[in-house]
Structures are given as C-alpha cells and as structure tokens.
Amino acid sequence: MQKIYPCLWFDTQAEEAAQFYTSVFKNSKVGQAARYDSEGAKVSGQPEGSVMTVEFTIEGYNLTALNGGPVFRFTPAISFFVHCDTKEEVDALWEKLSKGGKVLMELEEYPYSDRYGWLQDKYGVTWQIMLVKEPMKEKIVPCLLFVGDKFGKAGEAIDLYQSVFPDSKVTMMQKAPPGEPYNNPDAVMYSSFTLCGETFTAMDGPGEHKYTFNEAISLIVNCDTQKEVDHFWNKLTSDGGEEVQCGWLKDKFGVSWQIVPTVMEKMMSDKDPAKTKRVMAAMLRMKKLDIATLKEAYHG
Questions:
Q1: Sign of the alpha-carbon torsion through 237, 243, 247, 250
Q2: pLDDT tens digits for range 7-42
Q3: Which CATH superfamily does the domain covering 220-300 fall into?
Q4: What burial class does residue 280 get, using C-beta atoms within 10 Å of its C-beta: 0-12 exposed, 13-18 middle, 19+ buried?
Q5: Domain locations in the chain?
Q6: What's the whole-model pTM score?
C-alpha cells in the first residue's frame, strides 16, 4: 500500500479531472468516491450529496482529488515528473496534457534530457515530462520547488523529512554551482530521495516567483495506529509548523500534509449514513485526528 499520496484540491472538477488523467495515462483507473453529508456540506459550502473526494491511479501511482471549493489554486511549487522511455511517449503526453493549459518550459532538448518540457494543464496542475535514458521504477514522482523566502531550504527540508519518515534515504543530491543565478551555497539544483520507500524530488528555484506551497496539493500520510499519527503530527508541526484542522497541518516550509488513520476509509465508506455522519461530525471538531474518539463516534 502506498504510504504517502498526493491530494489535489479542486473547486468542483474532482471527478472530471480524475477521469481526464486516467484517460491520459496508462495503468490507470478511477477508484472509490466519498460524498458530502450534511455536516461536511455545512462546513465546506459544497452541496450535500456531492462528491467530496475521488481516488484514482495513474501509471500505478495513487492520488486523491478533493472538491473543496474555489479556495486554493495549483502552483508549480509542487509538480509531477513523468519519466518516459521514448520521445513518442513524451510527445503524446505533452499533446494531451497541454491542451487548454500553459507552457512553463518549452518541450525541447536540455543538458539533462534529450526531450523535456514543463507545463500547466487545463486544471492548473503542473507536469514535468521527461525522456530518461534508462527505465525508472517510478513513472510519476512529486517534485517540491523551494522559491521566494523558502529558496535555499530544499536541503534542510530533505533532512527534516528523512528524520521523520522511516525507510528513507537520499539517492541523489546535486548542489547548485556558485555564482549566478543561485548565489546561495545551500541551494539544491536537483535532488532525489525516498520517504517510506517512495521517491520524491526537490530543488531550489532562484529568481522571483509569485507563488509558493499551499493547500492545493497536500501529501496524505496513511497511519495504522495512533502512535503513528502522533509521531508524524508532532514531528511535522514542531519548530515552526502549524496545526490546521481535520488532520491537516503545514510544516515549517509551508508544505501541507494530511495525517490520516487508515481506519477512516472504512468508517467513511460505511453504508449506514448515521455512522458516517457521526464520524464526520467528530472529525470536524479535531485538529490532530484521534482514532479512539472516531471509533467511538462510529459505533455510536
């Protein structure tokens, strides 16, 4: 089971986006959907009975799409690398994902790839489509870009995450060269690392940028026990992090995480609406999620 997976925040297009992405990528499918009950609808402003979240898989990589209203917009601060084996694959994905979107870096040859481009799709999600010389285990890899007042902190963030998550290691670290445009001895040009055995990338972005991390893309951490919930919550909110609501938090760098007990999926998908309503009401009163209290609400 994928321990950490991204959650994409949409206004009302979660289902539509999930269908679109699964039509673009291979080894893909749309999974289970959860709907807003009266409690959730009241807080979110979404219609009761409308889709709250929908799970989907692209290239074997799991994501969740959330309908949360017009609150947050996607930025390139978190993008997704797509590793392709052929130029034809790069071009086909580029054509499909770029329709109605915006080019951030032109699709062409670069020193690090014979075929690479960075785009923002029609929903605002950003993709870095890249031809790789050797097949890679992970087709889809999230990328964290540290810009603005977070510039130069990619290495520090990786160190923090390595200390928090098990089965973690740095697999590549390329520091930025001295001088322009980085002018920062701590800046990371490119890095690759694993958390819970899953691959992530991170880099520092020099120059002026009008965006940074926000809740439009958060990282969900599945937790089997309250001890796990407490560990990740306490570590990621310490030293400048921020507790938010309903299992959401921001770490000291502004990256959003959702620390979620795995038992929540079973409770929220129960066919008895009275049970799911009680669980939702209990969750809405929490910041860090408490499994015992959620189970108590579930059983009435």
A1: negative
A2: 999 999 999 999 999 999 999 999 999 999 888 888
A3: 2,3-Dihydroxybiphenyl 1,2-Dioxygenase, domain 1 (3.10.180.10)
A4: buried
A5: 1-37+51-71, 78-204, 220-300
A6: 0.96
